[in-house]
Design a protein that fits this description.
By secondary structure, the chain is of the alpha/beta class. Helix content is about 30%, strand content about 25%. Helix 1 crosses helix 9 and helix 2 crosses helix 9. The model has no long low-confidence stretch (mean pLDDT about 90). The structure holds flavin-adenine dinucleotide.
Length: about 375
């Protein structure tokens, strides 16, 4: 056996950084605050709202899951790495703080036979083992109740769901003595690009921008190309049987212990309104009807509660993760994947701030360079 050790000079040396300011207390800002404080950094977390995880991250039941496709390009690659890392991250934090974390099985439904054969090819190539990814056809018990158009798919074990994790994250942040400043929008936005110029100064402590709503206005000389996409989720009761598996395809369905189901997946481009819409609840209820067909009993599905949020996606659907200027970093643009992608993205940012080795290939990291559209 050949054993080697790194020469001292080749070992990455940790930079002497003590303080980091994070703008934005969504899932990306909170994940970063927790991880960076674990590494001994003093963190100030600033949010314009009165509570943490108040905007896109107030999502009541996000899933942490891989997407099975034949996309082995940068997005597919990052998605796998990030999913595996996120599972570890949430398992670990939920040991010390209840985050509503639960691991469930999810069926990713194929819309057509062609899509199903592509999924089969993908799992053959991935070769991850039947206990984790398994092709299932319409004979599978859970699918016999599902409508004819979606009769096959892939059963994924080990998908995470976070049931109303906001309080848990806020408590975890308090437990780590992170300085929290709420109801404080970072600078008067009317000041615009001058903040960008201030962040470029080398003598200030690192600032991480995890605020998709205003990052473009704060740093006007960088082109982020963030597109807002509004979505609404609806909690529904009236299923004939409790939903044993989560179902993903066109949107997703995930069940709670009380038998109710969150149906999620409306998609309104360039809409930043968080106002609840009845028509979107109807679309979400229709998703259930479409999957399970008309109800056998006379009572219909009933809406219990609704939630609307906005995700911000980039044009190439890769996030912005990395250095913007001497002391400024971007951690944003997670689209529909923030809960899955943020923990690994956080690790990339701390490694860059502290000068440690990067947890992913440099070529992949380059695809997330926040200056790539300039
Ligand atoms: C319908 C729907 C379903 C989704 N389902 C999933 C899912 O199943 N799995 C998954 O992984 N992801 C899912 N997502 C995506 C996920 O919710 C987002 O990607 C994630 O919430 C983004 O987190 P963030 O921290 O980047 O942004 P946000 O949560 O929006 O946080 C940004 C924070 O910055 C603050 N802020 C903004 N400007 C300023 C300023 N100037 N000063 C101070 N603070 C400021 C805001 O108040 C906010 O708290 C879904 C999204 C939607 C809409």
């Amino acid at each position: 056996m050949l054993v080697g050790t790194f020469h001292e000079e080749t070992r990455a040396k940790r930079k002497s950084v003590d303080n980091v300011t994070i703008i934005g207390g969504g899932i990306s800002g909170c994940s970063l605050a927790l991880r960076a404080s674990e590494l001994g950094l003093n963190i100030t977390l600033i949010d314009s709202e009165s509570a943490l995880l108040a905007r896109g991250s107030s999502n009541p039941l996000p899933l942490v899951r891989p997407t099975i496709s034949l996309d082995f390009g940068p997005r597919g690659q990052f998605n796998w790495y990030a999913y595996l890392y996120a599972m570890r991250f949430y398992r670990m934090w939920s040991r010390s703080q209840p985050l509503g974390w639960r691991e469930i099985e999810v069926i990713q439904l194929a819309k057509t036979e062609t899509e199903f054969s592509k999924m089969k090819d993908a799992i053959k190539t991935l070769n991850l083992g039947q206990d984790f990814l398994r092709c299932i056809d319409r004979e599978f018990p859970a699918l016999t109740t599902v409508g004819r158009k979606t009769s096959s798919g892939i059963l994924i074990s080990g998908v995470g769901q976070l049931d109303k994790c906001q309080t848990g994250f806020a408590q975890a942040i308090r437990n780590r003595s992170i300085e929290l400043v709420t109801e404080m929008p970072f600078i008067d936005l009317a000041d615009g690009g001058s903040v960008g110029r201030c962040l470029i100064k080398s003598d200030i402590d690192p600032v991480v921008l995890a605020n998709p709503q205003t990052v473009q206005r704060l740093v006007s000389d960088v082109c982020f190309r963030l597109q807002p996409i509004r979505g609404q989720s609806t909690r529904v009761v009236g299923m004939e049987q409790p939903l044993k598996y989560g179902l993903c395809g066109d949107g997703y369905l995930a069940g709670l212990d009380d038998g109710s189901v969150w149906s999620s997946g409306t998609f309104d481009l360039n809409d930043e309104s968080e106002k609840l819409l009845n028509q979107d609840d109807s679309l979400n209820v229709d998703r259930i009807r479409h999957l399970f067909g008309p109800k056998k009993s006379s009572s219909d599905y009933r809406v219990l509660e609704s939630w609307a949020g906005v995700r911000y996606a980039t044009h190439d659907r890769m996030p912005h993760v990395g250095r913007l200027a001497q002391s400024a970093y971007a951690l944003t643009g997670f689209g529909s994947k923030g809960f899955t992608w943020a923990p690994l993205a956080t690790e990339i940012i701390v490694s860059e701030i502290l000068g440690l080795s990067c947890p992913i290939e440099r070529s992949l990291k380059k695809r997330m360079n926040p200056l790539r559209f300039n």
